[in-house]
Amino acid sequence: xxxxxxxxxxxxxxxxxxxxxxxxxxxxxxxxxxxxxxxxxxxxxxxxxxxxxxxxxxxxxxxxxxxxxxxxxxxxxxxxxxxxxxxxxxxxxxxxxxxxxxxxxxxxxxxxxxxxxxxxxxxxxxxxxxxxxxxxxxxxxxxxxxxxxxxxxxxxxxxxxxxxxxxxxxxxxxxxxxxxxxxxxxxxxxxxxxxxxxxxxxxxxxxxxxxxxxxxxxxxxxxxxxxxxxxxxxxxxxxxxxxxxxxxxxxxxxxxxxxxxxxxxxxxxxxxxxxxxxxx
Amino acid sequence: xxxxxxxxxxxxxxxxxxxxxxxxxxxxxxxxxxxxxxxxxxxxxxxxxxxxxxxxxxxxxxxxxxxxxxxxxxxxxxxxxxxxxxxxxxxxxxxxxxxxxxxxxxxxxxxxxxxxxxxxxxxxxxxxxxxxxxxxxxxxxxxxxxxxxxxxxxxxxxxxxxxxxxxxxxxxxxxxxxxxxxxxxxxxxxxxxxxxxxxxxxxxxxxxxxxxxxxxxxxxxxxxxxxxxxxxxxxxxxxxxxxxxxxxxxxxxxxxxxxxxxxxxxxxxxxxxxxxxxxxxxxxxxxxxxxxxxxxxxxxxxxxxxxxxxxxxxxxxxxxxxxxxxxxxxxxxxxxxxxxxxxxxxxxxxxxxxxxxxxx
Lengths: 280, 360
Hints:
The structure holds 2 protein chains of 2 kinds. Chain A is mainly alpha-helical. Helices cover 75% and strands 0% of the residues of chain A. In chain A, helix 4 (71-102) crosses helix 8 (154-166) and helix 11 crosses helix 15. The longest helix of chain A is centred in the first third of the chain and has 37 residues, at 2-38. By secondary structure, chain B is α+β, with helices and mostly antiparallel strands. Chain B folds into 2 domains: 4-226, Rossmann fold; 237-355, CATH 2.40.50.140. Chain B has helices spanning 42-50, 92-102, 107-120, 136-148, 166-183, 194-200, 218-223, 228-233, and strands at 4-13, 16-26, 31-35, 57-62, 65-66, 77-80, 154-158, 186-191, 203-208, 211-216, 240-249, 252-256, 262-264, 274-279, 284-287, 293-302, 306-313, 318-324, 334-339, 345-347, 353-355. In chain B, the strands form 4 sheets. Chain B has a 6-stranded mixed beta sheet with strand order 6-7-8-3-9-10, sandwiched between helices. In chain B, strand 12 and strand 13 form a beta hairpin. The longest helix of chain B is centred in the middle third of the chain and has 18 residues, at 166-183. Chains A and B meet through helix 9 and helix 10 of A and strand 6 and helix 2 of B.
């Protein structure tokens, strides 16, 4: 009896594992195909059958993507934008979450509701307003113009608010008894308590911003001011599309995010779990 | 001068009144314990002194200075929280230094104060550790150390021993008493544990549902409870209560004991009718004759140095009587009991004591 039940459990586990592996393969194959294709000569890429390994391995496409496009400049633009958005978003969201959670001021509840209401407004619906506003302020094709409209991440504020809600109020009271100013309570007591969550959130905001396409696509009208995801769509020449070169550019574009993920896997998973609960 | 004066203080949360017209003075150097059950308002009083709750009406003076509108940090009082509230990311010395840095003390002065407090509390070796690396008792010490370094006018303790295990609680209680003797500082201490109140306090304030039931020394509270609530709340086992009738005999007024015997109580301010006689288990003795009450032993609790007998009175309720540790009585033994008249309390229908001093 016990033996058969054990065997059924084992069989179930084996089936689930196989299924998971299959799904993982289905997921990873396009990535593998993209990387492998970027290492093939262009004529091998367009062959009508599948070759899992290139006959001739070449790094030419990477070389040409790096030398014949403005990808270096796009990297700098992307980096400046992503770092700018991350730093400002995290810092302002942390302060905002702290205020809604810990400070007593008139209209606090309404502010909280207002922030929650922001979830209902997709960024896309604001895009024309943003464009007109940035154009009027002459900020198109500037880093600032790229950054400002991307600073809206209500989910980060809500995560911080919930975190601060969970901190026992005695810490704040002890700090008040210790004659600490509001500012000191924030940056000496509350901020150091949440380094873990801040690191995690900073990484996901960085990744979201790095991968963002719509606004950078609109805000940058010149090759020199594009970010990497926008720029790689420009990697073609007059004779048509070169798949391998485009894929090489795509791999280069994704590389920082992949590295970031590899190094900070735990924090990214934590942050995505935190935001998933709220974002729904 | 570090006395604390609360005058006509009231506090409401929304429509719920928590403290109603409280006037209380804590003398300089006094160890005052606020004792009461949950929801009696004792923690609210402490938090109002600390400045963590606003005072809706009335005034607060600390060391002669009006304080009710000062922020907590400027009242020169230090508080030890129930869960200690040590900043988890700061070392022990960091925790102690934080308050001193906030008032702009120099590094040398801060180091000197921390060293002195650490020596006093015998925790010099813990200074570089973090709260997570400390045991409950050690955290408690750090919380007290954090209060001491501030050299406050008064210390406020909010049930500081309730998170410790029983053995450690007893030891820390003694240490707190010693510390108070050494520092001679004003202390306001909140607890619902009557043993802490009895052992630590110079004076105890017994609170019950928003008002003060009695203020007195631990012995006054114990032996001369002003109300039935105080009598029942303080003391373990609790005081026995027996319904008795008052009777006038000539010009003398007294009560009729359960045995029918008449007990004269010349200092009582009694009217006619029923009163409740309150008497503690240790004030009842087992006698051979001349009994005030008779009954039968129902339960025996042997505690070593004493024995508690639960006696069902023949004419009255089940009461607890204290006998010697080597009590020879058995279950269902009949007993004759005599009350120590000087230790009798009487409570009228309003729950207030009708008798405070000894009878004849």
